[in-house]
Amino acid sequence: MNNKKKSDAVGLRDRQIARFRWAMLGPGIFVLFLINILPIADTIYTSLFDYYLPMPQDQKFIGIGNYLSLFTEPRFLQSLGRTLVFMLMVVTTETILGFGIALMLTSNAFGTKLFRGVLILPIMLTPIAAAFMWRIMYSPTLGILNYFLEVLGIEPQKWIYGAEQALPSIAVVVTWCKTPFMVMVFYTGLLSVSDEIIEAATIDGANSFDILWRIKLPLIKPVFFVAILFQTIDTAKEFDYTQILTRGGPGSASETLSIFTYLNSFGFLKMGYGSASAIILSVFIFLIATLIIKAGGIDFDK
Amino acid sequence: MRKRSFSFRFFVMLLCLMAAMFSLTAGGSKDTAAPEANMEVGEDGIAWKQFAGTTLRLGMNKHEYTEAVKHVIAEFEEKTGIDVVIEEYAQDEFMTKRLVDLSSGAGTYDIVMMDSVCTQAAQAGWIENLDEWYTRTDLYNAEEYNLDDIAPSWKLSFTVDDHLYAIPVSGEKQILYYRADLFDEYGIKVPETFDEVYEAAKFFKEIMPAGILVRGQKIHTVSNCTGVIWSYGGKIADSLDYNYAVFNSPEGVAGTDMFTTLAREFGPTGIENYTWYECVADFQQGKAAMFLDMSVFMPQMEDPEASVVAGKVGYAPMPAGPAGSKPTGGAWAISMSSASRNKEAAWMLMAWLTGPETSAKMAAYNAVASRVSVLSSDAVKENFPADWLAALQAALAVEVEETTFPTISRNEEYLDTIGTAFNSLIQEKQDVQAVLDDAAAKVTELFQLEKQ
Amino acid sequence: MTNNLTMRQRKLVKKIVATILIACFTLIYMFPMIWTLMFSFKTKVDSLAYPPKIFSTPTLQNYIEVWTNSEFLTYTANSLIIAVSACVIGMALAVPAAYILSRSAYKPKGSKYILFGVLSTRIVPQITFTIPFFIFFRKIHLIDTHISIVIMHLTIILGFGIWMMRSYFLDIPYDLEQSALIDGCTYFQAFSKIVFPLAGPGIATTAIFSFNYSWNEFLYALILTGSRTKTLPLGVYNWVSYESIDYGGLTATAILALIPIVIFYCFVQKGLVRGMTMGAVKG
């Protein structure tokens, strides 16, 4: 009897939990999947067709044909490689710079509040405007960057206008715009480490480096890796800046996978081919995301 | 826990507020029912008021022509009682927007501005065959209209299978911009041939950042290089049937070599990714002695608010090659969306806008007309620099054998393929013949794809 | 002689040196921003002059032009409606979901797959979405309405919000809720009264970036808006014409577009700092 009552209570509790769980989780997940599932399915479906947009009546099913021809097209493979390089450049710099700035802001210097307020601004500037501003700053004949170089006695550079420098130059712009995100995330993380822990550690004779390395970093690790994860995803998909700055040029020197996809879908109107390339881009990002999740030890069972 | 920075209640209240806001804004658009058609016929035999109350949507590129349309549109609205809504976007954005709208058959726009994708849109059935609309004499003043007056070379670009699909409204032709003051100062003759351009560019490159400016970016560079190929006696395709590419002929190679050498040797640093934004800015700031491009940029150069060289620019016809001066051109046109729900009203507006009377009026607002009669009228002569007009008219007088871009459906792919070749030659000196042979094979492939 | 400096003085010197270093860095880092600001006060000729005119007579012409020649206020109103809705709805959906996914007591079986699923919605490039969505919204007559763009922005904000908020919730120890539950709180009360306030900084940071994303988003806004719902980024692009870029108008619009989002930031910032002091309690 007693036992039964207990199990009833547990059952009631389980039901309550279940109700609570789905009331909280349901709407968000439902909306998200409802909006996303159809377009994703549509993209996958389209990627199996040879589909030239102006002639929908001529589309024919070719299975994985688009994927096969993508992997034999050097231009696609090059853009895949470029995306990887670009992503590495941007995310690494962003992380280091972002962490450095966050540390700076938690130091006891004057006016850190003001600096924090100012340093967040680049991410708030409309990407369109930021990209156009950098484009004119990069101009070899009229840009201020080459003017600074001239003052310093360094030879003028081509920046986004030259094949060798185009991709790194775009990386600089994206890094500049997106680092504030990292700063904010790290900064909030660092601040939330309680003073008691730090005090306790100081009494134990830890120096400030130890505190940072042994105590602060492990504590902010989850947020740290989620930030890196999302920056990686966004950088791999990056489109606005590249399109405005170089359109993938000169030649194809800065043609990343998203530019390639856009060009094929919206330029050449090869919808099947473009969709296939988008799917590969997604899979590519997904693999890297999984890697980061593994590396960061983002724990799903916690 | 009393003092909470984020009160949950506040959060929920905000949510409710949003929901309320939505129900207000969610009204959506409902077409108002058109009132009884007014069939009262005017002096010219046209019932102008018959579509009163209709709303027409124009999808336009941000262009001088759109500005001019805005100036005259009130007159049309008053005359017909039709409301006209103009939506304009910067070029790249406009193209994306137009593509999505046309290809989905949404019919958001009744009239869209059209460029070199005309063939594609026409073959896909996205835009109307205008030949049929020209027979609707109840909707426009056919007696005065005179379609022959619109420059044939521009009409050719919008003709698909012998039917006109878009009406050219604003045309441009390749000309040579030069710094008249500098040419005077150094006693250099205004170039008439490409060899003279070469010498002048070489001279000026020594004393300023660029001897000559051209657009070097992949897609941008095609129209200008094509003109030089023509002037050297080459052609892009064998015929207007587009069977195979012939720009790798000896003439084509010579022309391409000249164009890309000019850009590579005497252009500004980084010319390989120059679009017109960079070219115009550099020229406006006096960083280059010459600029070979379309005539459309003249108002930018002569605008004292934006240009330090205003009043110091000279305009010369396209320099001649061994085969003479054969400039390319481009035009913007207006076309009617097949998905439009107000086609008759749309045609009324299109015919009115492109008619001789309105065209003449619009020329006063800097819109470079596509009508030959307007281009030679006195009003236009007063408005534009004489040497510029002369250069443009000289270009118009040249007979062209083919259109600037092949009138094929896969236009973007063509531009990308041939542009890649030109662009790689601008980037570094290579064997022109080999590069062009390779590109020609790919372009021929594209031509063949069209035949299927 | 340095020995004569007291501990306090030495600290002060250190602090000043640090401040100067940070100031220098900030100045360099912010240069493009400063340059943008200067552009907005320059005439067309001056802005592109080379050698660059660092100091030129400032003009308000660009701002006047933005005010009179463009529908700046309409764009701002549209952007505000869209960004506030997307941010608030997004957070309202993401925060509870993230909470459930962060608590082993509540999360459903296979939550790992839910998380991966959420992530994959963020991963798929938006470019391929535009045409299906355009056709879909066209069919249900939602083109050129705020709702369609809000929905599109939600696709991005939700995934980001759920992941970010989950990691912030993971930082908050479960003990606090447990004791609240023992005290007789319902599950929801334990969440809304205990955890929600503690997650303040996380919510603030996530909200700022969600708002920022929606405020500056371009591609969806381009495809799905019409004359009535154009947003600010499209307004910025309006200064790019066929032949040239009007840098004055472009930068002036961009600078003006910063104001609302900075206000939003300050507003949320208050919660952020207060939440942070609260956060220190949790230990």
Concise overview:
Chain B is built from 20 helices and ten strands. With 452 residues, chain B is α/β, with parallel strands linked by helices. Chain B has helices at 8-25, 64-80, 91-104, 118-123, 130-134, 142-145, 152-157, 180-185, 194-205, 221-231, 250-266, 276-284, 298-301, 343-354, 356-363, 372-375, 378-383, 386-397, 411-427, 432-451; strands at residues 55-61, 83-89, 111-114, 159-160, 163-164, 167-179, 210-213, 288-294, 313-317, 329-336.
Description:
The complex is a heterotrimer of chains A (302), B (452) and C (283). Chain A is mainly α and 302 residues long. Chain A has one domain: MetI-like (MetI-like fold). Chain A is built from 13 helices and two strands. Chain B is of the alpha/beta class and 452 residues long. Chain B folds into two domains: 48-171 and 331-383, Periplasmic binding protein-like II (D-Maltodextrin-Binding Protein, domain 2), CATH 3.40.190; 173-329 and 397-451, D-Maltodextrin-Binding Protein, domain 2, CATH 3.40.190. Chain B has 20 helices and ten strands. In chain B, strands 1, 2, 3, 6, 7, 8, 9 and 10 form an eight-stranded mixed beta sheet that branches. The N and C termini of chain B lie far apart (74 Å). Residues 1-6 and 26-34 of chain B have low confidence and may be disordered. Chain C has 283 residues and is mainly alpha-helical. Chain C is flat, with a radius of gyration of 24 Å. The model of chain C is unreliable at 276-283 (pLDDT under 50). Chains in contact: A-B, A-C, B-C. At the B-C interface, helix 1, strand 2, helix 3 and helix 12 of B face helix 5, helix 7, helix 10 and helix 14 of C.
Full CATH superfamily name of the largest domain in chain C = MetI-like
What is the N-to-C succession of helices and strands of chain C? HHHHHHHHHHHHHH
Number of strands of chain C: 0
What is the CATH level 1 assignment of the largest domain in chain C? Mainly Alpha
Low-confidence region ranges of chain C:
276-283
Please describe the structure with a list of short key phrases separated by commas or semicolons.
heterotrimer; B: 452 residues; alpha/beta; D-Maltodextrin-Binding Protein, domain 2; 2 domains; eight-stranded mixed β-sheet; two-stranded antiparallel sheet; 46% helix; 13% strand; globular; disordered N terminus; C: 283 residues; mainly alpha; MetI-like fold; 14 helices; flat; disordered C terminus
